Amino acid sequence: MVKIRLRRLGYKKNPVFRIVVLNSTTKREAAPIQQLGFYNPKTKEMKLDKTSALDWIKKGAQPTGTVKYLIDNCTDDGTLNYKKKETQKLSKKAQAKLKAEQEAAAKSSEASN
Q: Which residue of 10, 24, 48, 77 could cross-link 37, Cys pair, CB 3.0 to 4.6 Å?
Protein backbone atom coordinates (compact mmCIF):
# COMPACT_ATOMS: atom_id res chain seq x y z
CA MET A 1 0.00 0.00 0.00
CA VAL A 2 1.22 3.49 -0.84
CA LYS A 3 0.97 6.25 1.77
CA ILE A 4 1.29 10.01 1.69
CA ARG A 5 3.03 11.00 4.91
CA LEU A 6 5.35 13.47 6.58
CA ARG A 7 9.12 12.99 6.66
CA ARG A 8 10.80 14.76 9.57
CA LEU A 9 13.78 17.02 9.00
CA GLY A 10 15.29 19.82 11.05
CA TYR A 11 17.11 19.74 14.30
CA LYS A 12 16.06 19.16 17.90
CA LYS A 13 12.84 21.00 18.89
CA ASN A 14 12.65 22.66 15.47
CA PRO A 15 10.93 20.21 13.13
CA VAL A 16 10.42 20.74 9.42
CA PHE A 17 8.52 18.17 7.40
CA ARG A 18 8.52 17.07 3.78
CA ILE A 19 5.31 15.65 2.36
CA VAL A 20 6.29 12.47 0.52
CA VAL A 21 4.76 9.42 -1.13
CA LEU A 22 6.15 6.17 0.31
CA ASN A 23 5.44 2.48 0.36
CA SER A 24 3.86 1.71 3.74
CA THR A 25 6.31 -1.11 4.51
CA THR A 26 9.39 1.13 4.26
CA LYS A 27 10.85 3.27 7.05
CA ARG A 28 9.97 6.95 7.46
CA GLU A 29 13.43 8.02 6.27
CA ALA A 30 13.52 5.74 3.20
CA ALA A 31 13.82 7.08 -0.33
CA PRO A 32 10.42 8.46 -1.38
CA ILE A 33 8.56 7.63 -4.58
CA GLN A 34 7.79 11.33 -5.01
CA GLN A 35 8.19 14.48 -2.91
CA LEU A 36 5.04 16.63 -2.95
CA GLY A 37 6.08 19.59 -0.79
CA PHE A 38 7.15 20.78 2.65
CA TYR A 39 5.51 22.00 5.88
CA ASN A 40 6.94 24.03 8.76
CA PRO A 41 4.59 23.81 11.78
CA LYS A 42 6.34 26.59 13.74
CA THR A 43 5.86 29.29 11.09
CA LYS A 44 2.77 27.65 9.50
CA GLU A 45 4.55 27.83 6.15
CA MET A 46 3.67 25.19 3.58
CA LYS A 47 4.17 24.53 -0.11
CA LEU A 48 2.33 21.57 -1.62
CA ASP A 49 1.74 20.27 -5.14
CA LYS A 50 -1.99 19.77 -4.55
CA THR A 51 -2.77 18.36 -8.00
CA SER A 52 -0.16 15.61 -7.62
CA ALA A 53 -1.40 14.81 -4.11
CA LEU A 54 -4.98 14.47 -5.34
CA ASP A 55 -3.79 12.32 -8.27
CA TRP A 56 -2.01 9.97 -5.85
CA ILE A 57 -5.16 9.75 -3.72
CA LYS A 58 -7.20 8.85 -6.83
CA LYS A 59 -4.66 6.12 -7.59
CA GLY A 60 -5.25 4.65 -4.11
CA ALA A 61 -2.60 6.26 -1.90
CA GLN A 62 -3.72 6.69 1.70
CA PRO A 63 -2.85 10.05 3.34
CA THR A 64 -2.16 10.13 7.08
CA GLY A 65 -4.43 12.23 9.29
CA THR A 66 -2.13 15.25 9.36
CA VAL A 67 -1.49 15.14 5.62
CA LYS A 68 -5.23 14.86 4.94
CA TYR A 69 -5.79 17.99 7.08
CA LEU A 70 -3.03 19.84 5.20
CA ILE A 71 -4.44 18.86 1.79
CA ASP A 72 -7.97 19.88 2.80
CA ASN A 73 -6.83 23.26 4.18
CA CYS A 74 -4.46 24.35 1.45
CA THR A 75 -5.25 26.75 -1.36
CA ASP A 76 -4.95 25.92 -5.05
CA ASP A 77 -1.42 27.36 -5.21
CA GLY A 78 -0.35 25.02 -2.36
CA THR A 79 -0.05 27.39 0.60
CA LEU A 80 -1.71 26.72 3.94
CA ASN A 81 -4.98 28.54 4.59
CA TYR A 82 -4.24 29.18 8.27
CA LYS A 83 -6.73 31.15 10.36
CA LYS A 84 -5.28 32.67 13.50
CA LYS A 85 -7.49 32.37 16.58
CA GLU A 86 -9.18 35.60 17.62
CA THR A 87 -9.59 34.76 21.31
CA GLN A 88 -6.74 35.02 23.76
CA LYS A 89 -6.25 32.88 26.82
CA LEU A 90 -6.49 34.85 30.04
CA SER A 91 -5.16 33.96 33.47
CA LYS A 92 -7.60 33.39 36.33
CA LYS A 93 -6.82 36.85 37.75
CA ALA A 94 -7.45 38.51 34.39
CA GLN A 95 -10.70 36.56 33.95
CA ALA A 96 -11.91 37.62 37.41
CA LYS A 97 -11.01 41.25 36.70
CA LEU A 98 -12.84 41.18 33.37
CA LYS A 99 -15.92 39.62 34.98
CA ALA A 100 -15.91 42.27 37.73
CA GLU A 101 -15.69 45.06 35.12
CA GLN A 102 -18.59 43.57 33.16
CA GLU A 103 -20.73 43.30 36.32
CA ALA A 104 -19.92 46.90 37.27
CA ALA A 105 -20.86 48.07 33.77
CA ALA A 106 -24.14 46.12 33.97
CA LYS A 107 -25.01 47.68 37.37
CA SER A 108 -24.25 51.19 36.14
CA SER A 109 -26.42 50.69 33.05
CA GLU A 110 -29.29 49.41 35.26
CA ALA A 111 -28.94 52.38 37.60
CA SER A 112 -29.14 54.85 34.70
CA ASN A 113 -32.38 53.23 33.39
A: 48
Distance CA(1)–CA(26), nearest Å, equals: 10
Question: Could you tell me the CA-to-CA distances from 40 to 6, 69, 73, 76, 91 in Å, in that order?
Answer: 11, 14, 15, 18, 29
At residue 34, the pLDDT reads 92
Give phi and psi for 91, each to the nearest 5. Answer: -70, 170
SS3 call for 69:
helix
- Rounded distance, CA 26 to CA 12, Å? 24
pTM of the model: 0.69
Q: Identify the weakest region by mean pLDDT among 4-18, 35-49, 87-101.
A: 87-101
Q: In what order do the strands lie in the sheet with 14-23?
A: 45-48, 34-40, 14-23, 2-11, 62-63
